[in-house]
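User: Here's a structure from my thesis project, written as structure tokens. My advisor, Dr. K., wants to see whether a designed sequence matches the one we expressed. Can you design one independently, without my sequence as a hint?
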């Protein structure tokens, strides 16, 4: 789930269709995929889902900070965090 992470989780922010953003901490690839599908793409096999997972896996959080995807009605942002 990204390169050079210092935390043990990704904080996922999804904004767009709801009055308030949805925020979820995920610790595994499967949790990340589930969050992306449930709150963004709606389809686990969609190219947008797979592309986002590839980009997040290759992202260097230490050098680049958060990764953000903007789309028509909002955004999805992923941050390296420590979750308890």
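Assistant: Designed independently from the structure alone:
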């Amino acid at each position: 789930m990204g390169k050079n992470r210092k935390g043990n989780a990704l904080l996922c922010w999804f904004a767009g269709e709801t009055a308030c953003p949805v925020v979820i901490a995920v610790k595994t690839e499967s949790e990340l995929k589930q969050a992306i599908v449930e709150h963004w793409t709606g389809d686990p096999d969609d190219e947008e889902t797979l592309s986002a997972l590839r980009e997040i896996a290759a992202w260097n959080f230490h050098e680049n900070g958060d990764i953000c995807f903007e789309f028509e009605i909002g955004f999805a942002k992923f941050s390296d965090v420590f979750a308890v």
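When you compare it with your expressed construct, this may help: Helices lie at 29-41, 47-58, 61-64.
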